[in-house]
Specification:
The complex is a heterodimer of chains A (about 325) and B (about 550). By secondary structure, chain A is mainly α. Chain A has 2 domains: about 80 residues, no CATH class; about 180 residues, Orthogonal Bundle (MetI-like fold). Chain A has 15 helices and no strands. Chain B has about 550 residues and is of the alpha/beta class. Chain B has 2 domains: about 250 residues, Rossmann fold (3-Layer(aba) Sandwich); about 130 residues, Rossmann fold, CATH 3.40.50. Chain B contains 19 helices and 20 strands. In chain B, the strands form 4 sheets. In chain B, strands 6-7-8-3-9-10 form a 6-stranded mixed beta sheet, with helices on both faces. Chain B has a 6-stranded mixed beta sheet with strand order 16-17-18-13-19-20, with helices on both faces. In chain B, helix 4 packs across helix 6. Classes of the chains: A mainly alpha (about 325), B alpha/beta (about 550). The interface between A and B is medium-sized, with 20 and 34 residues.
Chain lengths: ~325, ~550
């Protein structure tokens, strides 16, 4: 299969996945008894002024049948019109645009921390000369995995903001303000990557080609850094791409703890206040991001591992991963 | 000192650390030397310590292994207590290492040319600018076609034989005086084995190398080594010039080892006579089987026919990829076939078999690797009992009785009943596999390389058992093997497969005495020992 045909096919698949997740959420939110949008807008507790309520009801065409509503909103979503928040009346695109840059910065920094943490943990756990240190570090991922984010975030906040005063918990200090939330997020997310990486490195280190490299006279650091690390990190790569979903999910908690207005906080509020158009938009956004990153990994795979051709990459994931490990 | 041998080993003891502070010696005082331009072979079974010694001489012992006594001298230097930093100066440039399994001995993510270049760069063997040309030259030297093109290939794009050539190129790249070859051909087909060993001999001659050749195959050592060191459980049992050791073995162990090597005793089962007038129990008639579809389709079995008469052993031989195992799976009804007819015990097989095998009582398959063919969480009793349960025998006590009876017949003690596959020895494991196959009292066994994972002594025991069972119960075997010496020993009739095509068949003795097809001749010529025999004649 040519590279172009492969990419075209995967993009078609990606679009299908996004559409399906959109449809599923629409069905769940709208097929419930009652009419969530009308109920929400006309709720006496809703603080929206009358001037905003009227256009909203018109916009959502609530007199149409369910299927017609679905087609209308789908069409609008497709053209980039994500509707209006039922709580504030602000266009959803505007709302998300604010939060997105915030969350993307947080997630990107957290991803960087996760990869660095996982690498540090795995390399120490496999190569550190003192056995006692190796076994302690080997246990770290399990500890990280079983420590809830709200606790980690809280402890970091108390130590670094309140006691040491290094980072303000209120003022926005630019990049520095991202460090604690990103670290909180990374501690939760890096654990599975570190575990898979430890396994991968241990397996790669036992491969006969390592003996041959040693017999060639290649320095141990080169063997570890260039050969074992590269071979051992292939399974962890797949996992890293998949944890992007975890990063976005984790952002909900972390942004709440650190009081940052990103997608996580917006999601939390939207769900709590049943702001249906916002929830729908976030679903589309997250699934798009997820699909795009996985598409990217699939394209990068053959570059790293020559044994995986695009033909194999197009095959079901289960088979492909076995190729990657074996 | 000019006269000193490149490798001198004196009273060498090697141990492995276990748990806290405990050391278990696996090599107990071994002495030998390897002279310049000569090959010394360490021969022994698994656990004899031969690989451990080879690794110690190459500075390649694992972290938990250490020399606990004696001395290793490499090119006049005492390397016994060398740290890995001290070894770095010797790796590759003094001692080249050829590993056992070429398929996993190269970094799969690095082009083979770059892996050879690494050797040259580490030791600055040639100027930086000349590395690329030298790589191509080395590949050409080890017999790789289109070397410039091949240098850019990744390991998975080369065959096992080509990979071993690349590894040999790596081993000699930095111009060492010593080559340590640890079972360099045990993972390769017999014809490829011959070309690789010929290459090693040629390089040894050209470069004046001292070669330490580790093998479990006595026939191979006989053919290739100037001197033999016979090892058992870390002790030297016999030592000296090859001819002397083999003709006048001093230790009974050498005698036993010799008698267990199929090549050394072709007529071991000659007393076994097959009845040629016996009825045919398995008939494969013009069977073809293709895998894949369209242009990517591979014809694994192409118009193959064979007949197995009751009480006989029919061998199927050929190199890996020749379709042996596919044929076995077709006969066992495990996979379908595209054309032809298969008749098992008078019943014609459906070309598209049911997923459930209803005819386990007719024919059973014994696999190459028993460990992979058993559920690791089942104990032996449950493994052997399972076919009975599947066949619908509900009486638990009766099932247990039959299991005990069959274990007795394959000479397994009742103590193995509650062990798991990992907890019994390799030989016992293959006995369990045979017991599982026999528990339904089938008439035919298809044995797919039943002993290729076993040591020669254990192999001899399993073959003895199979021959005895066959005589007692009038069983018929299809015996699949790449070991032609073994095939000559046990089989009555033979089919030779090449790329899925049966190029020759007939009585084993006739085919071995007068092979008609060039492929058969090539296979037979590659059997270790044959070259030596013919060289003497010529």
């Amino acid at each position: 299969m040519s590279r172009r045909a492969f990419v075209a096919r995967r993009i078609a698949q990606a679009v299908l996945v996004i559409w399906l997740s959109y449809t599923l959420v629409f069905a769940v939110l709208f097929v419930l008894p009652g009419n969530p949008i009308r109920d929400k807008i006309t709720n006496p507790l809703n603080p929206l002024p009358e001037s905003v309520v009227r256009p909203l009801i018109e916009y959502y065409d609530l007199d149409l049948t369910l299927v017609e509503q679905y087609l209308v909103t789908l069409g609008r979503t497709f053209t980039g019109d994500l509707g209006y928040s039922l709580v504030s009346g602000i266009p959803v695109t505007e709302l998300l645009a604010q939060g997105l840059s915030e969350t993307l910065a947080l997630a990107a920094l957290a991803l960087l921390f996760s990869v660095l943490l996982a690498l540090g943990i795995a390399l120490t756990a496999v190569f550190f000369p003192v056995a006692a240190v190796r076994s302690v570090v080997r246990a770290l991922p399990a500890v990280f995995l079983s420590t809830p984010s709200f606790l980690v975030g809280f402890v970091l906040l108390v130590v670094f903001s309140f006691q040491l005063g290094w980072v303000s918990s209120i003022r926005d200090q630019g990049l520095v303000s991202y460090v604690l939330p990103a670290l909180t997020l990374a501690i939760a997310v890096n654990a599975p990557i570190a575990q898979v990486l430890i396994q991968g490195l241990s397996r790669a280190r036992g491969e006969p080609f390592v003996t041959v490299l040693k017999a060639k006279g290649v320095p141990p650091a080169t063997i570890a850094g260039r050969h074992i690390l590269k071979n051992g990190s292939i399974p962890a790569l797949t996992l890293t791409a998949l944890t992007v979903g975890d990063l976005l999910a984790g952002a909900t908690i972390v942004e709440t703890i650190f009081n940052r207005t990103g997608i996580g906080l917006i999601t939390e509020q939207a769900v709590r206040e049943q702001d249906t158009p916002v929830v729908m938009a976030i679903v589309v956004l997250v699934s798009t991001l997820f699909v795009v990153i996985n598409l990217f990994t699939d394209l990068v795979y053959p570059v790293i591992d020559p044994r995986i051709s695009l033909r194999a990459a197009a095959a079901p994931r289960r088979v492909r991963r076995r190729v990657a490990i074996g | 000192m000019m006269t000193e041998s490149p490798i001198v080993v004196e009273d060498l003891r090697i141990g492995y650390f276990h748990g806290r502070g405990g050391v278990a010696d696996v090599v107990h005082g071994v002495s030998f030397e390897v002279r310049r331009g000569e090959t010394t072979s360490l021969v022994g079974q698994s656990g004899s310590g031969k690989s451990t010694i080879a690794h110690a001489i190459g500075g390649l012992l694992p972290a938990n292994g250490a020399v606990t006594g004696g001395r290793i001298q490499v090119l006049g230097r005492d390397v016994t207590g060398f740290t890995s930093r001290q070894w770095r100066g010797l790796y590759g440039s003094s001692v080249g290492f050829v590993p056992q399994d070429p398929l996993s001995s190269l970094d799969p993510l690095v082009r083979v040319g770059d892996q050879i270049a690494q050797s040259l760069r580490v030791h600055r063997t040639v100027p930086r600018a000349a590395v690329r040309d030298r790589v191509v030259e080395l590949l050409d030297h080890v017999g790789i076609q289109k070397p410039a093109e091949r240098a850019r290939s990744y390991p998975h794009q080369l065959s096992g034989g080509q990979l071993q050539r690349v590894l040999i190129a790596i081993a000699v790249a930095a111009r060492p005086a010593i080559l340590v070859a640890d079972e360099p051909t045990s993972a390769l087909d017999v014809t490829v084995q011959k070309t690789i060993l010929d290459l090693l001999a040629e390089l040894q001659h050209d470069l004046g190398l001292a070669v330490l050749f580790i093998t479990h195959d006595l026939a191979l050592a006989r053919e290739r080594a100037d001197r033999l060191v016979v090892l058992n459980h870390g002790l030297v049992k016999d030592h000296g010039p090859t001819r002397q050791v083999l003709e006048n073995p001093r230790d009974p162990y050498t005698v036993t080892l010799l008698s267990h090597a199929p090549a050394e005793d072709p007529d071991r089962y000659a007393g076994r006579v097959a009845d040629h007038g016996a009825p045919v129990v398995l008939e494969i008639d013009a069977v073809s089987k293709e895998f894949g579809r369209g242009s990517g389709a591979v014809r694994a079995v192409d118009d193959v026919s064979l007949r197995l008469t009751r009480g006989s052993i029919h061998a199927v031989v050929g190199e890996s990829g020749s379709g042996k195992t596919t044929l076995a799976r077709v006969a066992a009804g495990l996979i379908g076939f595209d054309a032809g007819r298969v008749t098992v015990a008078g019943r014609e097989l459906d070309p598209q078999p049911d997923v459930v095998n209803h005819h386990g009582g007719d024919l059973q398959l014994v696999y190459q690797n028993p460990l992979a063919a058993m559920d690791p969480r089942y104990d032996v009793a449950r493994i052997v009992e399972e076919p009975l349960r599947l066949a619908g025998l509900r009486d638990r006590a009766e099932r247990r009785r039959r299991v005990r009876e069959i274990l007795d017949r394959v000479a397994l003690p009742a103590t193995v009943l509650d062990r798991r596959p990992r907890e019994v020895s390799g030989g016992q494991r293959q006995r369990v596999a045979i017991a599982r196959a026999l528990v339904l009292a089938p008439k035919i066994l298809v044995l797919d390389e039943p002993t290729s994972a076993l040591d020669v002594t254990v192999q001899a025991q399993i073959i003895d058992l199979l021959v005895e069972l066959q005589r007692e119960q009038e069983l018929s075997y299809v015996f699949i093997s790449h070991d032609l010496s073994l095939v000559r020993q046990v089989s009555d009739t033979i089919t030779v497969l090449e790329d899925g095509v049966a190029v020759e068949h007939g009585a084993t003795r006739t085919v071995f005495a007068a092979p008609a097809h060039p492929y058969t001749r090539r296979l037979l010529d590659a059997i270790p020992g044959r070259v030596a025999e013919r060289a003497v004649v010529a």
